[in-house]
Amino acid sequence: MNPSIRLALLAALALQPLMATAALPDLDRDGIPNIADTDVDNDGLRNGVDRNIDGGVAVKGPLRGRYVGDQLPNNAAAELDMDADGLADKAPNETDIDGDGLADNSMAETDMDGDGLADNAASETDIDGDGLADNAANEADIDGDGIEDGNKAEADIDGDGLANGADADVDGDGLANSADRDFDGTGAVEDFLAEAAGNPSAYVDDASVQPVIDLVAAEIRRQLNLPANDTGLKVKVQPSWMPGVQTGVWRYLSADNMQVWAKWSYATAKPQEIKLFVNYEYTGPYSGRAEDYTNPANYQISNESRFYAQYPRGPFTFLSWLPGEPVSFYYAAPDEQATGRAVPVAALNTALAAYPNFYTDGRVFAGDLVPTLTSLQPVLELQRQLQKATRSASAKHETAQIAAESAAASKLD
């Protein structure tokens, strides 16, 4: 319960007859409703340090010497209202889960669910004590503040006082962001090759085309200098849609979850002429008829080589080149409508200005990456720069937001 509400309740209690408060739960029958009681079970332990806030032997009051309440530890899955204030722990209007007088979003609140584990401890796997592990697919609000983890208004997903952009473990699950496929705890794991369960697959079963997969993978490793023991590469084969041509896609996923992907293709009679960065272009007719645009005969492989890259939760970066020209990149930063804050122009300019022919209009950032693509490392490094600049700028806004919220909560403590 928010401290201001607790004070208001106490004031109201002093002015109203007892019968007016009879409907409010009072576990230890000391005349102070649980919602305003700093020791709900009267066991001598204040709520914030009591590992079973609403259960224990009363040491004073009318129930002295008797066991009061339940026998569920605060972090038990079955414990749905640990301070017995009538507000479910996961309810949006429950702003002080453990009833210790500290608002859950206060910087002073370091153990939100009162289980004795600091919210930022690696061993704390259920920060808000709602019975859902922080990394569970159905845990949509890790810190129990009523703001879903994927919401752009959520500045501190795990409630540890660190802005998401400055937190090395955003979702507080004990895994560093760089090693966590679901680093923000939203349940979304980004993989270009992922397909929705139950939908028809866009690819041929791997086992039936393994020789093709091996051929393509070997050429990718050769051209991009990927060692044989690097498991980040995956090749998929598409059902035939262009007569006499084998097509598919490949995706590389780095150890820190940066993705690169492209289309590949070769004439079935000339697999040695495989192209790994294919762009198909429509050659007409421009009749407006849908059947013309779905007719493979109206497409050809362009002279432009094209592929894409992405950092976790970031937008796609478009990369391409023409014969004899350098590999260029094109990155469109998410705008304020998408993120809730302005494009971090200054941070991105600082990160990218050293690239040849760098250009920006304040939303789009482009330049030349390398003269020739012989490795994925420059691409991956570009994604890391984009991610770092974006998170750094976000951290400034989020830190200010957290400080404002904490200051507001402190005035009520």
Notable characteristics:
413 residues; alpha+beta; Gyrase A, domain 2; 8-stranded antiparallel beta sheet; 6 helices
Give an overview in words.
- With 413 residues, the protein is an alpha+beta fold.
- Among the domains are: 199-302; 308-413, Gyrase A, domain 2 (2-Layer Sandwich), CATH 3.30.1360.
- Helix content is 19%, strand content 15%.
- The chain has helices at 3-15, 210-224, 290-293, 336-339, 345-352, 377-412; strands spanning 55-57, 67-69, 233-237, 245-253, 259-267, 280-282, 299-301, 305-310, 317-321, 327-332, 359-360, 364-370.
- Strands 3-4-5-8-9-10-12-11 form an 8-stranded antiparallel beta sheet, covered by helices on one side.
- The longest helix is centred in the last third of the chain and has 36 residues, at 377-412.
Low-confidence segments, given as residue ranges, are 9-22
The CATH architecture assignment of the domain at 308-413 turns out to be: 2-Layer Sandwich
* Number of H- or I-type helical stretches: 6
SSE order in H/E notation?
Answer: HEEHEEEEHEEEEHHEEH
> Globular, elongated, flat, extended or rod-shaped: what is the shape?
elongated
The averaged pLDDT comes out at 86
CATH fold label of the domain at 308-413: Gyrase A, domain 2
Q: What portion of residues belong to β-strands?
A: 5-15%
**What is the number of beta strands?**
12
Helix content: 10-25%
This entry's quaternary arrangement is: single chain
The separation of the N and C termini measures 11 Å
Adjacency order of strands in the biggest sheet: 3-4-5-8-9-10-12-11
Radius of gyration: 29 Å
* Main CATH class of the domain at 308-413: Alpha Beta
